[in-house]
Amino acid sequence: xxxxxxxxxxxxxxxxxxxxxxxxxxxxxxxxxxxxxxxxxxxxxxxxxxxxxxxxxxxxxxxxxxxxxxxxxxxxxxxxxxxxxxxxxxxxxxxxxxxxxxxxxxxxxxxxxxxxxxxxxxxxxxxxxxxxxxxxxxxxxxxxxxxxxxxxxxxx
Length: 156
Hints:
The structure is a single chain. Helix content is 23%, strand content 41%. With 156 residues, it is of the alpha+beta class. The protein has a single domain (27-155), classed as Domain of unknown function DUF4822 (Lipocalin, Beta Barrel), CATH 2.40.128.540. The protein has an eight-stranded antiparallel beta barrel. The radius of gyration is 25 Å and the shape is globular.
C-alpha cells in the first residue's frame, strides 16, 4: 500500500510539473508576433524620411503652416532598427543622433526618452508626427507666440 501511494504521488508530481512548465511564458522580444508592431517598425525604418511641412495649433484650435528654412528642408532622418536615429544634412553629413522607441500600443514615438510624438500618419510613403504641448515660437522679428500643438510631416 505504501509503494502504491508513493507511485501515485510521483505520477501526480510529474503531471503537476508538466502542467506548470507548459504554462511558462516564452520570452518574446519587441515586435515578435505582433502584426501592428511589426508594420510600425517596418514603416519607420524602411527608408529615409525628409521633413516636408511643420504646422502649429493656435489657441483657437486652428492649424497654421510655418515656413521651413531651406536648411531644415534639406534634413533627412534615418531610423535604424537598433533603436537609434541619425539626422543628415543635404551634404550627407551628420547633423544629430539619438535614440527612439515605439510606445503607447505602437501609436507613439519617443525620441531620446524625453519627447513623445503621436503617429498621426505612418505608412509606406508618409509620416506625420503630432505633439500636444505649449510651444513658444519666436518669429523673425523676435515676437514670441505660444502654440498648443505641433505637426511635422515627412515623406520618402
